[in-house]
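Hi C.,

You asked whether I'd gotten around to modeling the 152-residue construct. I have! Everything is below, sequence then structure, no commentary in between.
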Amino acid sequence: MLRLPVYARDLDAMTLTAEGAGFQLGLAMILRKELPFLLSLILAFALGRAPCLAHAALISASPQDGATVPSGDVVIQLRFNSRIDSKLSRLTLLKTAADQSVVQPLETSPVSEGLKARAPDLRSGAYTLEWQILSLDGHLTQGRLNFRVERR
């Protein structure tokens, strides 16, 4: 007859003994060997997923926030820290509250890390560029930057 007595007094060893079968299965010994592996696996999964779940952040812009550029055609470039869906992203260029013109993203691929557009024939004055992008993880991110246009 096979008996499996559990000795609860010795919690450190937590040994299950199968008499007749001639083996010992130490729960504490298994945990000591496998716990570091399981913890490192969980940690690796958590850290590996973190960048995928973050929002896209603006890492560079041209013109820069607060910059002054010459009048005429202005090339607008925004770069982000992750890939974005440029077809579902937009740029809006504002001169005043009454005058709002939309600058369509140009020269971008459907999946890229940035937007590039051309604002034709800008005249002197203060402008605000509002941007809204959709990152590939599904997060919508928006922001704005201000710049001035002055005569050449």
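If it helps when you're writing up: The first helix runs from residue 27 to 53.

Thanks,
B.
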